[in-house]
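Hey, why these numbers?
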Amino acid sequence: MSDQDKQDVEEQIFFEEENTSSLKEKIAIQSAKGGEIAQEDTSRNALHTGERPDADPERQLQDDEGGSDSPDALSGSLQASALSASAADDTDSTSPDVTLDQSAGLDTNDDASLGLQPAPMARLRRTAGSNDQQEVLRAPDAGSTASITESDGPFAPASPTSQPGAIAGTGTDADDPETPNRAPDAIILDRMEVAENQEGAVVGKLSIADADTADSHDITLSDDRFEVVDGELRLKPGVTLDHEAESAISLNVTATDSGGAQYTQSFDITVADVNEAPTELALEGGFIASNTAGAVVGRVTLTDPDAGDTHQYSVSDDRFEVADGVLKLRDDAVVSDAELGVLNVQVTATDQGGALISETFAFEAVDAADVALSSGFHASYFDVDHSLSRLDQIDWSSDPTHEEVVSEINYKNGRASFWEGGATDTFGAKITGNIDVEEGGSFDFFLGGDDGAMLFVNGVEVIENDGLHAYHTRSGQIELEPGTHTIEVRYFENYGHAGLKLEWDGPGTDGRELVTSPGVDDLQTVNGIPLTLELDLNAPGTGAAHQVTQFIEGLPEGTVVSAGDMTAEAGADGAVEISSWDTALLSIQTPLGFIGDVSAQIVTTTAFDDGGAVSTTNDLEFSVSQADLPPHSAQMQTGFHASYFDVNHSLRQLDQIDWSSEPTHEEVVSEINYKNGRGSFWEDGSADTFGAKITGNIEVEEGGSFDFFLGGDDGAMLFVNGVEVIENDGLHAYHTRSGEIELEPGTHTIEVRYFENFGHAGLKLEWDGPGTDGRELVVASDDLSVAENGVIPVNIGGGELSDQASVQISGLPEDTILMSEDNVLVADGNDVDLTGWDLTLLEIAPPPGFEGTISGEITTTDVAFNGQEQTSSDSFSINVGEVSTSDEAQSDQHSAQLMTADDEDTGSGDWVAASESEPRDDDSSEDVMNEDVEHQGSEAQGYEVTETYERQDW
């Protein structure tokens, strides 16, 4: 080439930007992205890199038509070879123009991160004729590693070798004896994703960038599942990938040139997820129970290569469905006995992508065991071998004679037994359970019975209708909040007719109606109280069944299930086996601390002789609420001191009792009001041939004349301040007498003496005078006061503490004496423990000579009706010293009138002798002790006060 030609070629090389990046800079960037480049020869000249240090950046070469050239915009990094010196020497006018377009490799962001601008396009234009052809070399789309293509001619790269794994390089001519071997610059893969489940799938086009254009390369891969064929990276024949097993593969590609120089590039290849159809559909189970709505066939299992795929199911027989993975009848569908035998249905499963699988399943409809579930109150019956006159004569903790579930308490009055084949006389009944209050408020309960009965709601006595009597009804009222509440009815029958009924009236009821238990669709209970169910097992009648097993599943851990003599507790799995149990009455009691909803199932499985089995399921859902516990009291109360004397002979008058003897029982009562009936005056006490002495203080706020009314069956007498005011002694039916006395304001003492021979027993004391609201019950003073060296009777807990209650008292001074029955304790100044004492009467004697106030605290811990522990504390103060009294026991100041009246209403002997065989109307429940006194004369009778009625302790 002449010097002039060389000069022409050099002048046609120009750059679009003043500060251009050399090929070395671009290769350095590629190396920073993970490539390995051999040490560069420092002898490379400016022509190798396309740089011309002495070039004028403003100079432009015009083409034949005189227009200016403007290169295309560049994106990414440059992967191209430099022009060799031999190319510059070629001046063949017939050679095509060569244009080098740099547009691949690093993108603009990569340039920016390295502080570089995209390299300008270097265009080499040779002086040529109009027939010369021009080819632009372009890289693939931005973001992929570029491959280099060139036009035919002196600058064209070598063709890829036909040997496996060999790819020709692209770059400058390596024939120059002064140019040493250079390692490949980059490995470019134009696509890095491969489809799963496709044998021999192509990943992408693989190319090598090498400055030595004539060089060839051997390719090695780190994963032998891949190969390079004709410049393409692909899977080997017979090899497939699974996205679910391997979603991405890291592959190292190493290119080794003919001179042994290497370059390694790592690629992360994504294994594309392709929707795959389910591969297997199976059914576990081969039987279905006939005549059972919602009966289960078995569990459907589905295999799908796509993990996490969801499926829709359809069944050829629209009576069936696949719900929660189970093939079953719909809840309103059954298989009839006419269809006993083999049934066939086709089940189709369709995945999210629309791929589906269908299978036809055959199963047998059989006559299997099933269960009918019902709920109600728990009725326990106790047959006794002796006559009865009150409820406490039955041992309610003993084993019942019979138990059953009843939906209501409504035993028709007659001579029949309460239970099938049971006793008609001398038996007891205890009915317990839950009621649902939808709207809170005041409720009236009505309890009718022949003979005695009582009602407790949430452990509180609401109606007392005890004793021997014909059928009659009494009522009681209680406030109830919305929710679940517990009831208990106790009843006894002696001889003759027997009947029992419980009704209520209140918010949400349809007037006065029977009390019923919630149904199976609304099962509920409270903590500590069992849920009562009846499970009626219907076993196959054909004799084909080999065995029937039953389990309750899904119970809270610690739940106790019992039926008769059988008891089991649910473990951590929540299951209890009840096979072979008598489930006519099944009790389920969750742990005491459990509050919430229970979703359990009763699973009944019938196994057949041929080895097959079929199960039926009954849902068992119920709620457990916190029990409505009555307030627990630790209060210290004073009142009248009641002493009872049980004697072993008949009585006709008061002086036949030794009132100075040791009482049979003592307690504190706030009023003198013992209902006329056949019950005892004290718990577990005698109902006949006993006496009672009640003493205490009353407070008169406004002085004046007071009328006292004393009713009794049998004899009774009243003393006020030691003076006899009313004499009602002798054998008689219940009747009332009155007496009048003048009383000054202040504290006054009273004493009532009474005896009962046989039959009904009743006693009541009322008064009427200044400061009273008409004729009303006489109530004891509640002032905790005692004279120096005196004794004060008190009651702790209102008589409601159980035998298991623990009681501690603090604040008592040293040498305080406490007495109850046979228990005596002298305080040492520390807390005293009265656990196990009968605290219906506790007598407290302050230390000798003590005056002032004793202040302390009582703490009680007791067990409520549902077994839940309750603790309560209450403070007290006892005033010790002079007690203000108004002593009117002076003969010259006393005037008393005695009036008698034999009662002619239902409180008379006619009421006492009423036949049990004639049920009364509800009006018979009227309190006979509430009658008016009939005055039979107005003659005043004077009474002398003698020493006979004075006592040392007044």
The longest strand covers residues 596-608. The mean pLDDT is 78. The CA atoms of residues 607 and 613 lie 4 Å apart.
